[in-house]
Write a structure and sequence with these properties.
By secondary structure, the protein is α/β, with parallel strands linked by helices. 27% of the residues lie in helices and 18% in strands. It has a 10-stranded mixed beta sheet with strand order 7-6-5-4-8-1-9-10-2-11, sandwiched between helices. It has a 3-stranded antiparallel beta sheet with strand order 13-14-15, with no helix packed on it. Helix 7 packs across helix 8. The chain is globular and about 55 Å long.
Length: 382
């Protein structure tokens, strides 16, 4: 007779996991900000340690030719959140005028999943509009911890963070300015862990939208010490990875990891000189590959086989794949440009998800057709 021993906590963790398996998958979308294509271990970096991301890449699917729909922050996020080319609704450049933001008639991933019974939360950077009608809690998120703007300091600064009502750089919780303690990346990781711990009885969608490693380059001293460097960019990436590890550990403790679909990518390519897009040309803001080809992972235990997928995929596909996995219908009033990737990954559908991909920002544009690329640039300013 085979005897299995297990603690009480372990027993209930297994039961919780088995129960969750029968229902809808949790969805965790992790977005880095201005991360270089080469600046994680699974992309070949030897100067920055990212063990938690490397483990997700090793046991999940790494997209070798994965792209976002824009080479700057706000339109990239607009495309990802809607599954539609953002030019369709006028969200082409970075940053829209304060009174504009993303068209509120567009359906966000948060709204789509909320209708399907998901508890939803956004932690970190929004950057899709500052007006009340564009606030995350009115765009599909039950909880919002973060900032409406595109970047801010990583430490609480009394000179800029005290009694500034309406400032989009404020750190807020559901419309109320809050004071955070410690490093902002750690604070976002901790809030996400709390949300995961409180979401054991309902499927959840958590959008962990880091501001790291976007400037200002203000790494945690302990992270610099752990790497043995004074390079704050490297320290920010290491801290980002460390917090991803905290969230993954929480999923495992709660028996949720096996039934959580996890995405990781960057919103665009590198910008600061300390970052690397090797071996790609160009950087953030350009239509060369280094502007929009990004580190990209999909991890879903027992549903997505570990490996490397070489065909072109897009951040536009996150919406369609996630909604379909949650049991939703992809037919909607405004048609999607992204596709459900699962049939391609499990071999049920042949061919490529995207034979062509397109980009445009004002005077610059590009098109990929298989291995061919056409670029139009004017005054691109490397």
């Amino acid at each position: 007779m085979k005897i299995i021993t297990c603690t009480i906590a372990c027993f209930f963790s297994v039961i919780a996991g088995a129960t969750a398996e029968k229902g809808k998958p949790n969805i965790l979308l992790i977005l880095a900000d201005d991360l270089g294509y080469h600046d994680v271990g699974f992309q070949g970096s030897e100067r920055i340690r990212t063990p938690h991301l490397d483990q997700l890449a090793a046991t999940g699917m790494r997209f070798a030719d994965g792209h976002v729909s824009a080479s700057v922050c706000s339109p990239s996020r607009a495309g990802m959140m809607t599954g539609r080319y953002q030019q369709r609704f006028g969200h082409e450049a970075n940053v829209p005028p304060p009174t504009h933001g993303m068209d509120v008639n567009e359906r966000t991933l948060g709204q789509a999943l909320k209708v399907l019974g998901y508890r939803t939360a956004l932690f970190g950077k929004w950057h899709l509009g500052n007006e009340p009608k564009q606030y995350p809690t009115r765009r599909g998120f039950d909880e919002f911890y973060g900032l409406r703007d595109g970047h801010r300091t990583f430490w609480y600064d009394p000179a800029h963070d005290h009694d500034r009502p309406g400032d989009p750089k404020n750190v807020e919780h559901n419309g109320k300015q809050v004071r955070f303690e410690g490093h902002f990346t750690d604070w976002l990781g901790d809030r996400t862990v709390e949300f995961v711990n409180d979401s054991r009885d309902q499927p959840f969608f958590a959008f962990l939208s880091f501001t790291a490693p976007h400037a200002p380059l203000e790494a945690k001293p302990e992270d610099l010490e752990a790497l043995g460097t004074d390079d704050h960019y490297c320290g920010l990436v290491y801290g980002l990875d460390r917090n991803i590890g905290k969230v993954v550990d929480a999923l495992k403790r709660n028996g949720q990891f096996e039934n959580t679909l996890i995405w990781f990518l960057s919103d665009n390519g590198r910008t600061v000189r300390q970052a690397s897009n090797h071996p790609l040309g160009g950087k953030k803001g350009t239509k060369f590959e280094g502007g929009h080809r990004v580190p990209f992972i999909l991890h879903w235990s027992n549903r997505v086989t570990a490996g490397v997928y070489d065909s072109m995929v897009s951040a536009l596909d996150i919406y369609a794949t996630s909604v379909k996995a949650a049991g939703g219908d992809l037919k909607q009033e405004r048609p999607l440009d992204g596709v459900d990737l699962m049939p391609y990954l499990n071999g049920k559908k042949q061919g490529e998800p995207h034979p062509q991909l397109l980009w445009r920002k004002l005077e610059c544009a590009a098109a990929r057709d298989g291995d061919w690329k056409l670029i139009r640039v004017e005054n691109h300013g490397f």
